[in-house]
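cron nightly-structures :: item 1 of 1
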Amino acid sequence: MLAAVVRTSISIVGPGPVITRVSGPTISLWSEIALLTSGAVMIVAAHIRMIALRRRTASSEQLDDYSGLADALLLVLMVALFLMLIMVAIHVT
């Protein structure tokens, strides 16, 4: 799953700076920083979620299926993804 998140982040973040460099000279620094930060947050949240799920799977004790940590990290991933898409739209325009 981590590889899929990294590929998604790169495919969304990557074209943003390239398009703006080709299309025009006005590039706002804050949108580049926000774009790269949202991609980094998405990758870090996916990595932490992967570690939490691996520990949960490897555990021998009976665990509740409705664990809050994995679900909260999934929510962080989704919010970071939508923020990244919004930042690409702002960055390109």
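cron nightly-structures :: done
Residues 29-58 form the longest helix (30 residues).
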